[in-house]
UniProtKB/TrEMBL annotation:
This is Membrane protein. PANTHER family: INTEGRAL MEMBRANE PROTEIN-RELATED, MEMBRANE PROTEIN. Residues 158-188 are annotated as: Disordered. InterPro entries: DUF1003 (IPR010406). It comes from Mycolicibacterium agri (Mycobacterium agri).
Length: 188
């Protein structure tokens, strides 16, 4: 079974040996048609078309020797019909390409909006977690209040210590012979 050539195998598609003679780049045709459709929608195009129609009608009405399209102007009508026959598909092609670009842009905007929403939700959760954590952290006001309470406690204890110090000074000052007495007073 492995000896079968690619031509005999059913799971391998046949390749054409003919090369296409005329290949068209769809993107290039689309860009060209968009450029024409954009030009057809400009004031410059309308001005040129108006000038050409006025010259066409003037030459066919007043130049007796140059009349190639007499009064009902059938050739001019044929030119406008041909122009409309080509302009309409070109405009539709340009609209379809613009619609495709808009769809891609909308999908990209939708993706960005979803990412932004996810990022915002993440940041909201992180902010809530930080608020909870900050609630457990000592704030400046809390520390000041606690330090004020400690200062008040130290201030209350300080006069009794200074009274003991005054008694020690009366006996000859601390650190000399009476240091043992002071130790015994504090321990007892």
């Amino acid at each position: 079974m492995s000896d079968l050539s690619a031509r005999q195998r059913l799971d391998t598609p046949r390749t054409s040996r003919r090369r296409p003679i005329f290949t068209v780049d769809a993107e290039a045709v689309g860009r060209f048609s968009e450029s024409i459709a954009r030009f057809l929608g400009t004031g410059r195009y309308l001005a040129w078309q108006t000038i050409i129609v006025i010259v066409w009608i003037s030459l066919n009405l007043f130049a007796v020797g140059l009349r190639w399209d007499p009064y009902p102007f059938i050739l001019l009508n044929l030119a406008f019909s041909t122009q409309a026959a080509y302009a309409a598909p070109l405009i539709l092609l340009a609209q379809n390409r613009q619609e495709n670009r808009d769809r891609v842009s909308l999908e990209e905007d939708r993706r960005r909006a979803e990412q932004t929403k996810a990022d915002t939700e993440y940041l909201a959760r992180e902010l809530a977690a930080l608020r909870l954590a900050v609630g457990e952290v000592a704030t400046r006001d809390y520390l000041r209040r606690e330090l004020d309470e400690l200062r008040d406690l130290v201030a209350e204890l300080a006069p009794s210590n200074s009274a003991d110090g005054a008694r020690d000074d009366d006996k000859g000052g601390p650190g000399k012979a009476h240091s043992g007495e002071r130790r015994s007073k504090k321990s007892g």
